[in-house]
Each structure stands twice: as C-alpha cells, then as structure tokens.
Specification:
Belongs to the NqrDE/RnfAE family. The structure is a single chain. This protein is mostly helical. The chain has one domain. It contains nine helices and two strands, in the order αααααααββαα. The protein has a two-stranded antiparallel sheet with strand order 1-2. Strand 1 and strand 2 form a beta hairpin. The chain starts with a helix and ends with a helix.
C-alpha cells in the first residue's frame, strides 16, 4: 500500500509533470483558457495514462524490444481514440473546447515517457498507480493555470463570477500570450522560493531523456537497455575480430 501511495504522491507533488518536470507544455499552454478546460484535459490524459500504463505493463514481457516504441504508440493511440469517441458522445461541449489537443494526447511526452521509463519495467498495479499519480499531477497543474488565467482574464472560475462588480478583466490572460505570462510567473515564483523545478536544475526527471525531449531528436529516448545492447554488440564484434586475427596468425605460422 505504501508503494501505491508513493506512486501517487510522486506524480502529484515530487515529480509533478507540469510544475516540476515542465513536460506536456503544448496542451498546457493551449487549452488552459479556463479551469474547466484544464480539468477536462487533465482527466482525459489521466484516463489514457492509466489504461496505457496498465496494458503496456501487462504486455511488457511479450513486446519485442526492437518494436516496443511503435507498440506503445499503437496502444496509446487506441485508448486516445476510445476516449475521444466517449467525449464526442457524452461531453460534446468539452470535446469542442479541447479540439485537436485530444488526438494529440498520443504524442504527449508524459504518456510515452511513463510507458518507457516505468510501465515497461514494473508490475501492472504499480504502473497503473503511477499513471494515476502522474495524471492527477498533470490535472492539478492544468487546473491551477486555467483557474489563474480565467480569474484574471474573465473574472470567473468554473464560470462562476468571483471578482468585484467593478473589476475590469485583463483579456490578454485568456489569449495565447496569457498562457506564457502565467507559466512564466509561476516558474519565477518557484525559482524565487527555491522550490524544485526543471528550470533551476534541481529537478531530476524520471524520464530516460532527462525531461529534455528535444535531445531525443524526434526519436526514442536513449535507455539503459539500449546502452547494454550496444555494449554487447561491440563486445561481440571485438571477440569476432580477435578470433579471426588469432586464426590468421595460426594459419601463417
């Protein structure tokens, strides 16, 4: 039980994907025009995270290493499609608000990162709770940013007015630049208070790429498993060359 609670607290607090690791910034900046959009996107991503982590962990010993990333993407895309259809059927207004960012969950760095760094190496239950933790952490981050922008930009939160009658909303906060302003302000506060954050170098990402997805060159992250395989191939090549050299020496002698 302690391990399960640790996976949840790790995602929500210790390694929060939004405020600590600074991952998934594309949907974070794009959809958080309101608290409703933030919590909707966060819970949608959580559902995909939990389901994909569960299935990938269950199949981790059956998926060949060489095709694991394509396999993960197919699994994630399947669950994203299911979630998208459910939103269209039962929450059409939320689906319209989130738009293209629902299908883009497939390439969300958080989901693929957790699949590669955790679900592929750990038991099913732990992987599912890891997905819950990371998903809730992402939801908290998006909801907080969305609420901040909605209050400043519209004077409301969850469509309820919370500001004085004479308050004049600052519309820029619910426009595209407002997302950058809010994230910059929150990041500056983190650094000022010396809280753990990827921007001040104090956060160690649990992703094998260190949280810097750009270093992957648009391909898969470099994992320890790949390094071990590369070392084995080099060792095998050296052994082959040594045997050929030894055989040639014996033939010449």
């Amino acid at each position: 039980m302690n391990k399960l609670l640790e996976r949840i607290s790790n995602g929500v607090v210790k390694d929060n994907p939004t405020f600590i690791q600074m991952l998934g910034m594309c949907p974070t900046l794009a959809v958080t025009t309101s608290a409703t959009n933030g919590i909707g996107m966060g819970l949608t991503t959580t559902a995909v995270l939990v389901a994909s982590n569960f299935l990938i962990s269950a199949l981790r010993k059956l998926i060949p290493n060489k095709v694991r990333i394509p396999s993960y993407i197919v699994i994630i895309a399947t669950f994203v499609t299911i979630v998208e259809f459910l939103l269209k059927a039962y929450l059409p207004s939320l689906n319209a608000s989130l738009g293209i960012y629902i299908p883009l969950i497939v390439v969300n760095c958080i989901i693929l990162g957790r699949a590669e760094s955790y679900a592929a190496k750990n038991p099913v239950v732990l992987s599912a709770f890891d997905g819950i933790g990371m998903g809730l952490g992402f939801t908290v981050g998006l909801t907080a940013i969305g609420a901040f922008r909605e209050i400043l930009g519209a004077g409301t939160i969850f469509n309820f007015k919370v500001t004085p009658a004479n308050y004049e909303p600052t519309l820029i906060f619910i426009l595209a630049p407002g997302a950058f302003f809010v994230v910059a302000i929150l990041t500056a506060l983190q650094n000022k208070l010396q809280l753990k954050s990827a921007t001040n170098g104090s956060a160690k990402s649990t992703l094998s790429c260190g949280g810097n997805c750009g270093s992957c060159g648009g391909d898969t992250c470099t994992t320890n498993r790949e390094k071990i395989e590369a070392s084995k191939e080099i060792a095998a090549s050296k052994a082959t060359v040594a045997k050929k050299t030894e055989a040639q020496d014996q033939k010449n002698s």
